[in-house]
Amino acid sequence: MAEEVMHHLKMSKGQIGKYVILPGDPGRVEKIAQYLDNPYYVMTNREYTTWNGTIEGETVTVMSTGMGGPSTAIAIEELKKLGAEVLIRVGTAGGIDPEVVPGTLIIPTGAIRKEGTTREYAPIEYPAVPDYSLVRELEEAAGRLGYPTKLGVSESKDSFYGQHSPESMPVAYELLDKWEAWKQCGAVASEMESAALFIVAGIRRMKSAAIMLLCRNIEREKKYNLYDSEWDTSHAIETAVEAIRSIILKEKNSNQKK
Q1: In contact, 191 and 92? CB cutoff 8 Å
Q2: Which pLDDT belongs to residue 226?
Q3: Using an 8 Å Cβ cutoff, are 134 and 210 in contact?
Q4: CA–CA separation, 121 and 162 (whole Å)
Q5: Distance (Å, rounded) from C-alpha 250 to C-alpha 118?
Q6: H or E segment to which residue 62 belongs
Q7: C-alpha atoms less than 13 angstroms from C-alpha of 45 in its C-beta half-sphere
Q8: CB atoms closer than 10 angstroms to residue 52
């Protein structure tokens, strides 16, 4: 019998690896794939562009999710059916903590569920948290590479302009109050996909984590009158690749001892 072809990803089993790097932007997929050995194009459908390559001989997939929770959740659901097991989101984020400098790599230890997708998966009281072992691998990988990191809670939102132009919204009172609450609670950054990644992957019994370049920090700009930014995601990509390499080598070493 022919293998089932996924409705959105347009792929079937055997076309991806168990390790998957997930950028949001389809335009970043080929760039990330070049950090792998033997990269090659697989498929594009809608916002989902897929490339494969290898790390230490193991197939690693790079696939875009598009922006936001709905398309991210669809990607995870179908990746699970294709055999994926380990997911690492690589992307960008804006700052909430004014002390975090652009260029810092954010590794979320949890995500604020300020979006709608995960409410159709779990009660709002259930936390969106990554896999601890993957968080540790990312932190250690960044340390080996010498890249500055910040661990902490990120905000996952549905509306980009709800953050950047809250005063223009009829619900400005709510947006501004919650943003201030996140600041006082100690949240470090804001983005759009991590909550969906952590919740859906957890429910489907997959390991997930995220690493994001802090590209701009408007709270830092307001507090210190500093207007610096960083848009090169290379360090985040390299860290994700290094973390996956570490996981693969540990698994191979463990299998050899059995």
Answers
A1: yes
A2: 87
A3: no
A4: 23
A5: 32
A6: strand 58-63
A7: 12
A8: 21
β-strands 58-63, 149-157 pairing: unpaired
pLDDT at 256: 79
DSSP 3: P
Contact indicator for 246, 126 with CB cutoff of 8 Å: no
Do 239 and 138 meet the contact criterion of CB atoms below 8 Å apart?
yes
The pLDDT value recorded for residue 3 is: 79
Looking at residue 161, what DSSP letter applies?
H
**Mean pLDDT of all residues belonging to the chain:** 96
What does the alpha-carbon distance between residue 24 and residue 144 come to, in Å, rounded to a whole number?
Answer: 26
CA–chain centroid gap for 243, Å, is 14
* The two structure tokens encoding residue 40: 């090659």
Single out the residue of 135, 15, 175, 174 nearest to residue 82, CA to CA. 15
| Pairing mode, strands 105-114 and 207-216 | antiparallel
Q: What is the pLDDT of residues 189-228, one digit of tens each?
A: 999 999 999 999 999 999 999 999 999 999 999 999 988 9
> How many alpha carbons fall within 13 Å on the CB side of residue 4?
9
Give the span between the Cα atoms of 228 and 217, in whole angstroms. 8
H or E element, residue 164 = helix 160-164
pLDDT one-digit tens code per residue, 146-158: 999 999 999 999 9
35-47 b/e with 16+ CB inside 10 Å = b? bbeebeebbeeeb
Lowest-confidence range among 50-54, 138-142, 226-230, 254-258?
A: 254-258
Average pLDDT over residues 11-15: 96
Q: How far apart are CA 92 and CA 214, in angstroms?
A: 6
